[in-house]
């Protein structure tokens, strides 16, 4: 009985593969196959023995779809691929279907946290200028990627990222259609020494070295703060700044060359004559700006161009 079954199997094999002869290649299909590359070859899904085993092993069976992890392949499909790409005699055996799975790996949370922190520290404009504190890192519980993509990692931040507060990192594993994307976010605090107001500064006041001092401060919510005393001492406050607050760039301006209420020299001139008089500036002004001035002698209001501290020029 067993001998009869062997004869029947041999007959079937000879019908399926007309070129099958006394010396044939044996392809034994596996039930499952794990691959870590994009193209699946015959050697991935079968054990191959025979005179042309090496050549048969390199027959491509299929290209794995980009987002597919498991795909079943029938023995008939694989036999067709062999007939299509090889003229060798082949004896087929083993499973009737093989499930091809892409090999995946899971990234541990501490590994991803380390990747996020390193990316933030490497790209932050505050690097070397302040202490950067990274907290509350959020991500998917499990990040699993195709093994073939594990070393193809791109870490990208938004071009507008200021690396303070909520900072998002886009992680891409692999390239092309099979690339896998994930987002990791965290809270980033920046602590450094900046000019801090010691006593209230009122709008219009000049900032002096007596009213501000360098102090260590968390500037996470003050990203537009001045960073040293030279940036703010001698400037004029545009708003009231409370004690204990940093001096923001939006809180200060260059003091005008002439201030409202200041006594000025009015120079009325033409090409041959200069007449000087005294006046009161009715508005702040900088070089080349026209401001209203009241003549102290006549009481008349005129407009003059600021040409120097305490000097305006009127043409006639």
CATH level 1 class label of the largest domain: Mainly Beta
CATH level-3 fold name of the largest domain = eubacterium ventriosum atcc fold
Query: What is the assigned CATH homologous superfamily of the largest domain?
Result: eubacterium ventriosum atcc domain
Helix content: 10-25%
For the biggest sheet, the summary is: 5 strands, antiparallel
Question: If you had to describe this structure to a student in words, what would you say it looks like?
Answer:
The chain is α+β, with helices and mostly antiparallel strands. It has 4 domains: 2-102, eubacterium ventriosum atcc domain (eubacterium ventriosum atcc fold); 108-185, no CATH class; 192-253, Type Iii Antifreeze Protein Isoform Hplc 12 (Alpha-Beta Complex); 263-315, SH3 type barrels (Roll), CATH 2.30.30.760. The chain is built from 5 helices and 22 strands. The chain has helices at residues 2-16, 42-45, 53-57, 75-85, 109-123, and strands spanning 25-29, 32-35, 39-41, 46-49, 60-63, 70-74, 90-94, 97-102, 104-107, 131-138, 143-146, 153-156, 165-173, 180-197, 212-218, 236-237, 252-253, 263-269, 274-281, 290-295, 301-308, 311-315. Strands 10, 12, 13, 14 and 15 form a 5-stranded antiparallel β-sheet that branches. Strands 18-19-20-21-22 form a 5-stranded mixed β-barrel. It has a 3-stranded mixed β-sheet with strand order 4-1-7. The model is unreliable at 1-22 (pLDDT under 50).
């Amino acid at each position: 009985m067993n001998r009869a079954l062997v004869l029947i199997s041999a007959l079937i094999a000879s019908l399926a593969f007309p070129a099958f002869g006394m010396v044939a290649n044996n392809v034994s299909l596996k039930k499952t196959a794990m691959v870590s590359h994009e193209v699946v070859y015959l050697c991935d899904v079968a054990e191959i023995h025979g005179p042309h085993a090496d050549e048969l092993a390199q027959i491509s069976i299929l290209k794995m779809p980009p987002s597919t992890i498991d795909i079943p392949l029938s023995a008939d499909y694989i036999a067709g691929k062999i007939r299509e790409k090889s003229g060798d005699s082949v004896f087929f055996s083993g499973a009737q279907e093989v499930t091809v799975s892409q090999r995946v790996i899971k990234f541990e949370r501490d590994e991803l946290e380390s990747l996020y922190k390193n990316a933030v520290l490497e790209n932050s404009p505050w690097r070397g200028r302040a202490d950067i504190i990274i907290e509350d890192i959020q991500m998917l519980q499990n990040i699993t990627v195709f093994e073939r993509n594990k070393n193809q990692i791109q870490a990208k931040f938004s071009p507008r990222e200021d690396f303070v507060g909520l900072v998002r990192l886009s992680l891409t594993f692999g390239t092309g259609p099979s690339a896998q994307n994930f987002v990791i976010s965290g809270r980033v605090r920046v602590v450094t020494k900046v000019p801090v107001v010691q006593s209230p500064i009122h709008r219009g006041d000049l900032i002096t070295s007596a009213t501000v001092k360098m102090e260590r401060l968390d500037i996470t919510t003050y990203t537009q703060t001045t960073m040293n005393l030279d940036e703010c001492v001698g400037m004029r406050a545009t708003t009231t700044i409370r004690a204990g607050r940093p001096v923001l760039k939006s809180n200060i301006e260059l003091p005008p060359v002439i201030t409202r209420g200041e006594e000025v020299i009015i120079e009325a001139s033409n090409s041959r004559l200069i007449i000087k008089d005294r006046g009161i500036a009715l508005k702040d002004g900088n070089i080349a700006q026209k401001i209203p001035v009241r003549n102290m002698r006549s009481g008349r209001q005129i407009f003059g161009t600021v040409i120097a501290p305490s000097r305006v020029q009127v043409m006639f």
